[in-house]
Amino acid sequence: MRGLLDETWLIDTLLGFEEGREESDSDDGHLNGLGNQEEGFEVVLQARRAFSSDWRSWIIGRVVTGGDGNLGLFGVGYCFGSQNDSSGSEVNLVAVFHDSEYANKGFGINVMQAAASGLAATNLNGGLRSFGIDYSYRHNINEDWQIYGEALFEYFSSELRKSPIVCNNYETEVGIGFIYV
Question: Where is it mainly found (predicted)?
Answer without folding.
Answer: membrane
